[in-house]
TrEMBL record:
<dbReference type="InterPro" id="IPR002935">
    <property type="entry name" value="SAM_O-MeTrfase"/>
</dbReference>
<comment type="similarity">
    <text>Belongs to the class I-like SAM-binding methyltransferase superfamily. Cation-dependent O-methyltransferase family.</text>
</comment>
<dbReference type="Pfam" id="PF01596">
    <property type="entry name" value="Methyltransf_3"/>
</dbReference>
<protein>
    <recommendedName>
        <fullName>O-methyltransferase</fullName>
    </recommendedName>
</protein>
<keyword id="KW-0949">S-adenosyl-L-methionine</keyword>
<dbReference type="GO" id="GO:0008171">
    <property type="term" value="F:O-methyltransferase activity"/>
</dbReference>
<dbReference type="InterPro" id="IPR050362">
    <property type="entry name" value="Cation-dep_OMT"/>
</dbReference>
<dbReference type="InterPro" id="IPR029063">
    <property type="entry name" value="SAM-dependent_MTases_sf"/>
</dbReference>
<dbReference type="GO" id="GO:0008757">
    <property type="term" value="F:S-adenosylmethionine-dependent methyltransferase activity"/>
</dbReference>
<dbReference type="GO" id="GO:0032259">
    <property type="term" value="P:methylation"/>
</dbReference>
<keyword id="KW-0808">Transferase</keyword>
<keyword id="KW-0489">Methyltransferase</keyword>
Length: 219
């Protein structure tokens, strides 16, 4: 049973931050009127991303999948004043909500939202200056395509994180298939022989059940 999972998320860390972030999550939780699905990262994982960026002294971050800007704010808050998060969102409707949330969080000076198909927008980006970290949290069937672009745009020693690579354990279940799981499998299979990165998976159990981050160190 997963009954204890939400509790685990609350007990294992210091309180995760400001009333603003809590309000954004709560809004996205109950807010049908904004039309946002409740799929933002849980607070403990947002904080993990924030700590990772501070640990590596990151200044430039790329995010795929802005949604309401919840993770974007965690990322932006980890950066120095001259840092930048470039975040890509397919849907204008979500980008608009994100822009409001990012403004309310006081980090809009550090965030650039690009609206469009990430695979097209990525190809317009140059690898210089490179990104210190890329957070891939968009449509799962495109995961491998995004990862290949992320590698091109990340500096050696940088980190690429991919969300949702465990999918309640279904990625590792040979009897299960759906388009999200297959997208993750395609990425995982390609990574097995990829000498550009050193990788692991951090499995998580939290307010959103059993899932995980792929953690890739760019050689
Ligand atoms: C879902 C969760 C995610 O974190 C995501 O990026 C996309 C979808 C989901 O639970 O459906
Ligand atoms: Mg996700």
């Amino acid at each position: 049973t997963h009954d204890h999972a939400p509790l685990a998320g609350r007990l294992i860390t210091q309180p995760v931050s400001s009333s603003l972030l809590i309000r954004i999550t709560q809004r996205s939780r109950k807010c049908e009127e904004q039309g946002l699905p409740d799929i933002a990262v849980p607070a403990v994982q947002g904080k993990f991303l924030n700590l990772l960026l501070r640990s590596i002294g990151a200044k430039r971050v790329l995010e795929l999948g802005t949604l309401g800007g919840y993770s974007t704010i965690w990322l932006a808050r980890a950066l120095p004043d001259d840092g930048e998060v470039v975040t890509m969102e397919l849907l204008e409707k979500y980008a608009k909500v994100a822009a409001e949330n990012i403004e309310a969080a006081g980090v809009s000076n550090k965030v650039k939202i690009i609206v469009g198909r990430a695979i097209d927008e990525l190809q317009k980006l140059k690898p210089s200056p490179p990104f210190d970290m890329v957070f891939i949290d968009a449509d799962k069937p495109s995961s491998l395509d995004y990862f290949i672009e992320a590698k091109r745009l990340t500096r050696p020693g940088g980190v690429i994180i991919v969300d949702n690579v465990v999918q309640y354990g279904q990625v590792a279940n040979p009897d299960y298939s759906d388009h999200m799981v297959e997208g993750v499998r395609r990425l995982m299979n390609a990574i097995k022989t990829d000498t550009d990165v050193d990788t692991t998976v951090i499995q998580t159990v939290g307010t959103k059940g059993h899932d995980g981050f792929l953690y890739a160190f760019r050689r």
